Amino acid sequence: MIEVGDLTFTYPSARRSSAVEPTLKGLTFSIAEGEIFGFLGPSGAGKSTTQNILIRLLRGYAGSARVMGRELSAWTPDYYAHIGVSFELPNHYLKLTARENLTYFAALYGNTVHDPEAVLDWVGLANSADKRVSDFSKGMKIRLNLARSIVHRPRILFLDEPTSGLDPVNSERIRQLVLRLAHEGTTVFVTTHNMQLADRLCDRVAFVADGRISAIDAPGALKKKYGRRVVRVEHSNGGDIHAEEFPLDALGSNARFQELIANGPSIQSIHSEEATLDAIFIDVTGQELTA
Ligand code: ADP
Predict the structure, then answer these.
(1) Closest Cα to atom 22, ligand 1: which residue?
(2) Would 247 be classed as within a structural domain?
(3) How large is the greatest C-alpha to C-alpha distance in the chain, in angstroms?
(4) Which residue, judged by its Cα, is nearest atom 21 of ligand 1?
(5) Residue 12 neighbours by CB distance under 10 Å
(6) Residue 236 belongs to what domain range?
(7) Rounded to two decimals, what is the model's pTM?
């Protein structure tokens, strides 16, 4: 659905200076139909720049970026009938109700659209359909934004930090909705620095730092590849607590581990260390995600 090869981009303001490095330094990835692809990286990594190129807001890239079989530079404005975009800052008609906003935007497309009523229900706004958007909370506006981005049944959905600003119940509702849309064939490109979300939502993730991709794989495969298979034992002899780690693979023949186990009462806790995507990101890119 999306094929990007050696994508490079330098902002026009920076092009005048020959010493400046490009913002995107040769990105290559492809996304299959119905796949949820996460673009993960800290602030300034180049996520928005990539997304803005993919939605044709930024032109003048080098390399190739083909969407639905056609180079982005060759697409015409009918591209927007095929894609849905939900970015962080919602802009709605504040004097109109949620239903009116959605009906208005749905009417802009020639597509067969979803019933606005149903879409409001999917994002948990069915009971607020006739409320003016000026009376909406920030979280409600974010959900209305998502509703707007899917009402015209786009084949590709671009999401930027989709659960940021939402409470846990609505975050989960949105996650389930995106999973369902993808299951029904929508391709989803999501940018985030929230690794928990990426882990629970994405089929594959790309680690992005400094305009480069350091790894692309399924979250589970990354954990398997980079994860530490160790068990951590905390023990104490009445005083300070000490922690020791042992490789999981040779646990049965590890004399020190056996010794600790034999002295049960001193053990405070035993945990296998699950690798988190956050930790793997630091290992792979040398950067923190929360930056
Ligand atoms: P992210 O979305 O991962 O936080 P961005 O794509 O927004 O990262 O930014 C990547 C780099 O490009 C940053 O160094 C940022 O300062 C720079 N940048 C972003 N927008 C512009 C712009 N309009 N003009 C010049 N530089 C920009």
Answers:
(1) 11
(2) yes
(3) 73
(4) 11
(5) 9
(6) 228-273
(7) 0.86
